[in-house]
């Protein structure tokens, strides 16, 4: 079974990014989560069949991608002018013609991407994704350093990664993983996710005692959690 991020050119020249998931299944299905499309197809499907399947459902895809992206704040098209959210603030992806490369940076409500010559879509995707991952690592690291000291709880290991169905995970051996996509949310949201997972070092369930511990360090956890639950949930 193969699962990877790819891009396809549709009729009319439009490019669409999606996660292709090939596996042992009878039918092709679509799924959208956090503003990202996943296309699950049988192993026998060739590129032409995949393209046809997507084009047959393009209206549904466009409608639901827009709904999901508005809530998650994550990039969908990765194109110049797309509105996303970084640390809870609106950011417009902005391609900046430049003879010299500079790392993507956020200034005055814009995520600036250096472009030499024509705008290459794959380049834009790499630059934006790298920026978001680095932002997430920096903010999660800062939150964890501060909160572990405050709570007196220290995980065995902390990783920042792409979690498909949760904002965070805490394993029984004390390893915590945080979804890099929390970078779209405010610092208070990031703190909440970290507090939630640190609390699991004491309570591996979601018992009343667990929530009391969370509330001790995040009094507004119900409001914050409610604003994130339609994207992902915590474990």
Which key features would you list for this structure?
globular; 37% helix; 235 residues; 2 domains; UTP_pyrophosphatase-like; 11 strands; 6 helices; Zincin-like; four-stranded mixed β-sheet; alpha/beta
Describe the 3D structure:
With 235 residues, the protein is of the alpha/beta class. It has 2 domains: 70 residues, no CATH class; 96 residues, Zincin-like. Helix content is 37%, strand content 27%. The chain is built from 6 helices and 11 strands. The longest helix has 31 residues. The protein starts with a strand and ends in a 7-residue tail after the last helix. Pfam families: YgjP-like. This is YgjP-like metallopeptidase domain-containing protein. It comes from Ruminococcus albus (strain ATCC 27210 / DSM 20455 / JCM 14654 / NCDO 2250 / 7).
**Name given to the CATH architecture of the largest domain:** 2-Layer Sandwich
Helix content: 25-40%
The CATH homologous superfamily of the largest domain is called Metalloproteases ("zincins"), catalytic domain
CATH class descriptor name of the largest domain:
Alpha Beta
Q: Count structural domains.
A: 2
Q: In what range is the share of β-strand residues?
A: 25-35%
Number of strands: 11
Low-confidence stretches: none
The biggest beta sheet reads: 4 strands, mixed
Pfam family, one: YgjP-like
Domain YgjP-like metallopeptidase: 26-229
Organism: Ruminococcus albus (strain ATCC 27210 / DSM 20455 / JCM 14654 / NCDO 2250 / 7)
Protein name: YgjP-like metallopeptidase domain-containing protein
């Amino acid at each position: 079974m193969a699962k990877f991020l790819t891009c396809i050119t549709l009729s009319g020249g439009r490019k669409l990014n999606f996660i292709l998931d090939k596996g042992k299944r009878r039918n092709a299905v679509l799924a959208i989560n956090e503003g990202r499309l996943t296309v699950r197809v049988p192993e026998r499907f060739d590129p032409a069949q995949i393209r046809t399947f997507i084009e047959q459902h393009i209206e549904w895809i466009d409608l639901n991608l827009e709904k999901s992206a508005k809530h998650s704040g994550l990039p969908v098209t990765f194109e110049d002018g797309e509105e996303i959210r970084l640390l809870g603030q609106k950011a417009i992806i902005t391609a900046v013609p430049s003879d010299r490369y500079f790392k993507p940076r956020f200034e005055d409500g814009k995520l600036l991407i250096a472009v030499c010559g024509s705008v290459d879509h794959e380049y834009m995707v790499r630059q934006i994704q790298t920026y978001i991952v680095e932002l997430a690592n920096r903010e999660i690291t800062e939150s964890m350093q501060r909160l572990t000291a405050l709570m007196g709880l220290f995980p065995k290991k902390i990783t920042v990664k792409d979690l498909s169905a949760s904002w965070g995970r805490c394993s029984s051996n004390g390893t915590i993983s945080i979804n890099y996509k929390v970078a779209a949310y405010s610092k208070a949201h990031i703190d909440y996710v970290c507090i939630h997972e640190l609390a699991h070092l004491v309570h591996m369930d979601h018992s009343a005692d667990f929530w009391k511990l969370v509330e001790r360090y995040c009094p507004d956890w119900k409001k914050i959690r409610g604003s994130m639950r339609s994207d992902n949930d915590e474990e």
